[in-house]
Design brief:
Blueprint: H1 39-50, E1 55-60, H2 67-79, E2 83-84, E3 90-91, H3 98-116, H4 125-141, E4 148-151, E5 168-171, H5 177-195, E6 201-209, H6 214-226, H7 228-231, E7 236-242, H8 244-251, H9 255-258, E8 262-263, H10 272-285, H11 300-310, H12 314-328, H13 342-360, H14 363-374, E9 379-380, H15 382-389, H16 393-405, E10 409-415, E11 418-423, H17 425-432
Parallel strand pairs: 1-7, 1-8, 2-6, 3-6, 6-7
Antiparallel strand pairs: 4-5, 9-11, 10-11
Helix pairs in contact: 1-2, 3-4, 3-5, 4-5, 6-8, 12-13, 13-17, 14-16, 15-16
Length: about 450
């Protein structure tokens, strides 16, 4: 027997404020049918895939804006047009070497063909070679400092194709993934086109390019530059997902990348109406009793106040609502299923964020955040704070870096060398108690 939870009083199975990425498939816990908005962005990305023999697009947006879910949605739409992909993206966060990334892309393509063929292609020679190379890289080396020789039964060195099924992989100093993966990717695509009912091309999703330091971005840029020719292969469509830092630090410095990666404007925030629709679709999906209505667990007025504070950060906003619900639902209002109101949400969030900030940041960094609130400042530059506080730019830079590191400030825009910063939702709630201030008019 399932143990009831407080969401059942609202006719919900569980919290509708989850922050997980949506997935395709009838068995997905949070299906793509819950996706809301982004129609313009979806069509733009799809046109880039369908309208060219190969493509490379950069999907840019601030952390928490829903970039990964957008690309999952685009991949499902592309699959209906014959462009196949894998649900799990290629993680770029911890990739440090070209060979690492090559083997991860190879694994992604193998998994894509395996899934779309329901395993029937696994016996094909190209799939067997890919399988063994990925396993050798993972098992023999743990994914680092490995290269491989491909030995045919006759003793000759090849790439394990054709009729040879007795492929041996061993560490070697003269054959590396960079030497064999590009050709293998071409053969895998040809196999998919020949054997699958619909395989116009393969969409490769490169993800997790967020919160990069300049050094990380520069290293990623060099790695992508070294793989430029791979990205130009017919039939492959690459979607690189990240924050604006990926463009500034990795793509922009290299003419070889600027000429092949198409970068669009950063994603806009969902509107308030779209956010309310997003929650109501989740309510319907999580309805406990289909014959009863859902009692909405938060008022629309409270949603509006929080929406204004978090300015597009869906992940942060949903996390704030989920935390508040754990403390408030069942303890407010007179009705058995009373929704959360703005005052209660602000009270519990302010306490949470203030406690977290006091445990994370130095006393001076926290005091300076309070100073911004007293000055009614929501956006600022380093030069402005240097002049206003009568301190060195080094001190201001260190303070802002600390705020950014712990999630209380982020970049709002760049104009040449001038960077504008803004406070995040947690900082605004902590400093104002949830009452939005009127930003000082910028000169």
């Amino acid at each position: 027997m399932a143990i009831p939870n407080h969401w059942n009083a609202f006719n919900l199975r569980q919290s509708p404020f989850f922050q997980d990425t949506l997935w395709a498939g009838v068995d997905a816990r949070y299906p793509l049918e819950l996706f809301v908005g982004r129609e313009t962005e979806t069509q733009r990305i799809l046109r880039g895939i369908v309208g060219a023999p190969d493509s490379r697009q950069v999907v840019v947006g601030a952390p928490g804006y829903g970039k990964t879910t957008l690309v999952q949605y685009v991949k499902s739409k592309a699959a209906a047009k014959g462009f196949i992909s894998n649900a799990e993206p290629v993680s770029m966060m911890s990739t440090e070497r070209v060979d690492d990334l090559l083997v991860r892309i190879l694994s992604y393509v193998y998994d894509t063909l395996y899934s779309f063929s329901e395993g029937s292609l696994a016996k094909e020679d190209a799939m067997q070679t890919a399988q063994q190379l990925v396993l050798a890289f993972r098992v023999q080396s743990g994914g680092a400092n490995a290269s491989f020789s491909f030995n045919t039964p006759a003793g000759g060195i090849g790439v394990g194709m054709g009729r040879n099924k007795n492929i041996a992989y061993q560490q070697s100093s003269f054959v590396s993934p960079a030497m064999v993966v590009p050709r293998l990717l071409a053969q895998l695509l040809a196999l998919g086109r020949a054997k699958l009912k619909a395989c116009e091309g393969i969409v490769v999703h490169l993800n997790n390019m967020e919160n990069l330091t300049d050094a990380d971005g520069e290293a990623t840029g060099r790695m992508l530059r070294d793989l430029r020719d791979l990205f130009l292969r017919d039939g492959y469509h690459y979607l690189l997902v990240g924050t604006p830092d990926i463009v500034r630090t990795a793509i922009a410095p290299h003419a070889q990348l600027r000429s092949v990666f198409m970068t669009s404007e950063p994603l806009n925030a969902l509107t308030l109406d779209e956010f309310v629709l997003l929650l109501r679709r989740r309510y319907r999906h999580l309805k406990l009793n289909a014959r009863k209505a859902v009692a909405e667990p938060v008022t629309v007025s409270a949603l509006k106040e929080l929406y204004d504070l978090f300015t597009g950060d869906l992940r942060g906003l949903l996390n704030a609502l989920d935390y508040s619900a754990d403390l408030l639902l069942g303890y407010t209002g007179k009705a058995p299923a009373s929704p959360m109101e703005a005052n209660g949400i602000h009270a519990v969030l302010r306490r949470r964020y203030r406690t977290e900030a006091a445990s994370r940041m130095t006393e001076s960094a926290l005091e300076n955040l309070d100073t911004l609130f007293e000055e009614s400042t929501s956006q600022f530059t380093q030069v402005e704070l240097t002049e206003r506080w009568k301190v060195s730019q080094a001190f201001v830079s260190k303070t802002i870096n600390e705020w950014q590191r712990f999630g209380y400030a982020r970049e709002a825009g760049r104009d040449r060398r001038r960077i504008t910063y803004e406070l995040t939702g947690p900082a605004k709630v902590m400093l104002t108690g949830g009452r939005p201030t009127s930003p000082r008019r910028r000169k």
